[in-house]
Amino acid sequence: MTAETIFQGVGGHEVRSAGTEENARIKVNAGHIGWADLIFVMEKKHVRRLQSKFSSEIAGKQVVCLHIPDEFEYMNEDLIGLLQSTVLPYVEPSSE
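^ that's the sequence the OP posted. Answer follows.
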């Protein structure tokens, strides 16, 4: 949810958040996968869950694992810094 909030509209991108946990407020589904051009996950276990549940939908999609522990509260300052340093290179147009 934090990533959706801070990256919505950056570089012209539309952003949606969904979780892989059973108790996620918005649980990822095949529609989310089909909609996405680029998928970010926090941890390796999230990649495994997506591959297990949505193997055909995820084929050919770019999935980026950020290697950030999924343990932060919404809009946590440390989380925002980690997300900005790992996600921005993918979503901001290069200045070359």
